[in-house]
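Database export, one record per block. Field names are fixed; values are copied verbatim from the stored entry.
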Amino acid sequence: MLRRKLILLSCSALFILSACGDDTPTTDATNEVNNPSGPGGKGDHWVNTGEPVSYEDFRAQVYCEPDHDICVTEGDIPIAGGEAGIQAFYYERIRASQSALSVNQSGGEDTLYTRARRLDLSYCVDDAFGEDKALVITAMREAAEAWEAHGHLKFRYDASQDADCGMDLNAAVFFTVTTSPADAGYLARAFFPDSQAADRQVRVNVPSFAAAGDGDDDFAKNLTMAGILRHELGHVLGFRHEHTRPEANDYWCFEDDNYRPVTEYDSASVMHYPQCSGTGDWSLVLTDIDVQGVAFFYPDFERYPMGRCDVELSDEGDVLEDCAPVAHHIVEFVNNASEDTLDHWAGLDTRAVDDILATRSRSPFHTLEDLKQMHYLKEHGVRKLYDYLYVDGRCAAETDANGLPLASCWPVSHRILEFANTASLEELDVAARLDRRAAENIVAARQNHPFESLSELWLINYVKTNALNKLYNHLYD
């Protein structure tokens, strides 16, 4: 009973497909899932036997919040869009998948934040928490600090928005921390980075923390709101439940395959349910492996700027591992690029692309040497990646609606930066047709430090959208 009871009591916005129970919905009063006096709440469960789960069985365990357009499966997994969203979730996620630190994916792409957003994850805390508000504020701060200590990211509490934090959408902050419905069957739930703005909520069911300690079991041992919110903020950052991985060897807790591992499997991870063959407890602290994972996906870009090196290639034309900025960006590109980008745009051998996708689905690449060990990649493939990123690469989308070059298109960004760092005053002024003052300011500024991002160029006086658009047109028209 403890196993079924706990499955509902932590986490967040995950696409969990199956977790507990048997093939058909249960109404056994001893199952805490259906026992209103237990901390779990609403909904039935099934065992993931590998057999198709019917829509009726799936729908029977979905709980819909009466005050928000969110329904929750497996106690804490939000689904947006009402009945239509539930049906889409079932057919796109559950039926599709039935035919430590792990990062969530959508459409084969990692769901992570842009470099700018990750440094301003602003939130408010709803006044509706009343006398419990101070407890929630403290728990959120402790949880945020745990992730901030090891990843290049920043949560920012904006108390000025607390009075409006219960709104369906508060555009002044990135997400809201608000109360749950009274009958919600979870301790807390959250969201993933690709959630719609109106769905970016961390909901905390404060009364359920007291109820979680009722009974004869030792569930409440080491359980704290800060621990639960550490887990929740892991989901906010894009990380999945560790126990969905096959290494957990726990069919009760399998969810889906829409993730890729970031680290080796970690049974004690902050993202691992203790009752799902976990070796940690409900204190839910970051392990050494969790620390490796968040540092990998949210690296300190001061260490790895989009800079260049005086020497990037060996005499034989191979990419040098000791040029840290270049090595890092090649590895980061391979870990995140879509199959189409690797195949069509970077022009890798199809067999190399298949090997990359298969390998990174188990564990990400960390060094150029990792890439060079790939049978169909080796030195020549890494050089092809270098040429794509720094010499002649293009992207499916290179500018926004205003013609501003997209920083996310690294080949274009690198080429613009190289031109800004090396072109003469006359080339900038006459050939690229920049305002003379913009050209002079670029030449003066780069004497102290080469430009390493488009945002650095943007900070130069007279270099704004029009100037960057001219640089792009000069290089690509």
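Remark 1: The longest strand covers residues 102-106.
Remark 2: The first helix runs from residue 2 to 6.
End of record.
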